[in-house]
From TrEMBL:
Enzyme class per UniProt: ligase
Keyword ATP-binding: yes
Keywords tagged on the record: Aminoacyl-tRNA synthetase, ATP-binding, Ligase, Nucleotide-binding, Protein biosynthesis
GO aspect biological process, one term: tyrosyl-tRNA aminoacylation
Superkingdom to which the source organism belongs: Eukaryota
UniProt-recorded name of the protein: tyrosine--tRNA ligase
Gene that this polypeptide is encoded by: LOC125527228
Length: 360
């Protein structure tokens, strides 16, 4: 693969900032095998973006010649008291996720799994020195903006900063945690960080904090941030989805029946491509996995299916009214069933995988 092809492959995932494009372009010239870290938070419910999109993008990085290290952020799950803070349970969940990725065709040659707790325990002095240095070089207000958009709201509406000491829901850990996350990113000395794989915006401000810190502390290794678009919620009402409705997304644990119900209930406005979650799933999952999308005819048994090889072509036809939204949903449903069947069969027949799934 040529240098231009390596750059194009990595660039296709998406940059955290357009300012990093030139840095990414010259990176393959500087390093034969750049080190790319992927941040993952252990979760027993694996969103399809984390289960499939992550695999597709990690495989791209391996193809582009990177050494990829998937960092399981078990230590942060522990201090957040997720899963009662039990590190054994947290790491079991992490192992379950790793099994999902392996089954979903993760390119294992060139990929290493790393536990954040091990990295910190191996280099505690280096890590905590970084944490304190980030803290020394940032204000309390900057830390608040990393975890709470309410601060920005207060600035815009009231013209004055929100006082963190007057808020009962703020504890010191929340203000200090961005320093710890930033230090965790810097500790790895990665050339590239692949973030935003888990449908979570928690690290967006930390990403900016890391870049700012590296820029201010001239000489520090400044990682390039790759961040692909997140999949939108399947249901139209975001507020409804945020209160725990399982229909808002597809998860790797969904059986065929659940998957069918979710897709059929999904928001898919007729002749509207922009903001259409079904089309975004097709763009980022179906086309990326199969290289095409097959849309059945109006009647399930009538034949007359059509195969699209380019998303642009698919969008043009959809906006013209053919295919219809019902046909698009059927195409998405069938494609996802084929992908997820691979994982389902493995977890049903492999004793190790079955044990991990049962532990969830």
């Amino acid at each position: 693969m040529s240098l231009d092809e390596r750059f194009a492959t990595m660039r296709s995932i998406g940059l955290g900032s357009i300012d990093e494009e030139e840095e990414l372009r010259v990176l393959p010239e500087k390093k034969v095998a750049p080190i790319c870290y992927v941040w993952c938070d252990p979760s027993p419910s694996v969103h399809i973006a984390q289960g499939i999109m992550m695999v597709l993008n990690v495989n791209k990085m391996v193809k582009a010649g990177c050494r990829v290290k998937i960092l399981m952020a078990d230590w942060f799950a522990h201090i957040h008291n997720r899963f009662s803070g039990d590190m054994n349970d947290i790491q079991t969940i992490g192992c379950y996720m790793i099994e999902v990725w392996k089954t979903a065709s993760l390119e294992l040659n060139g990929v290493e799994f790393v536990w954040l707790s091990d990295e910190i325990n191996r280099r505690p002095h280096e890590y905590w020195t970084l944490v304190m240095d980030v803290a020394i070089n940032n204000t309390v207000g900057r830390m608040i903006r990393c975890w709470d958009k309410t601060f920005e709201y207060a600035l815009g509406v009231y013209g004055m900063p929100a006082d963190p000491y007057d808020r009962p829901d703020v504890v010191a850990k929340m203000i200090f945690e961005p320093c710890m996350q930033c230090a965790a990113v810097l500790l790895t000395k990665a050339d590239i960080w692949l973030l935003s794989m888990d449908h979570d915006e928690d690290l967006e401000e930390v990403r900016e904090l890391t870049r700012e810190y590296c820029k201010d502390m001239k000489g520090e290794n400044q990682p390039i941030i790759l961040s692909h678009n997140k999949l939108p919620d399947l249901i139209e009402d975001d507020e409804f989805g945020n209160i725990g409705d399982p229909a808002w997304a597809i998860f790797m644990e969904d059986g065929e029946q659940n998957l069918s119900v979710k897709v059929r209930k999904a928001f898919c406005p007729v002749k509207v491509a922009q903001g259409n979650p079904c089309l975004e799933y097709i763009r980022h999952i179906v086309f990326s996995w199969f290289g095409h999308c097959e849309v059945p005819g109006k009647e399930e048994k009538s034949g007359g299916s059509r195969t699209f090889h380019k998303m642009e072509e698919f969008i043009i036809d959809y906006e013209s009214g053919a295919p219809h939204s019902a046909e698009v949903k059927r195409a998405l449903e069938e494609a996802l069933k084929k992908i997820m069947k691979i994982v389902g069969v493995h977890f049903a027949g492999n004793s190790k995988a079955k044990h991990l799934a049962k532990a969830m």
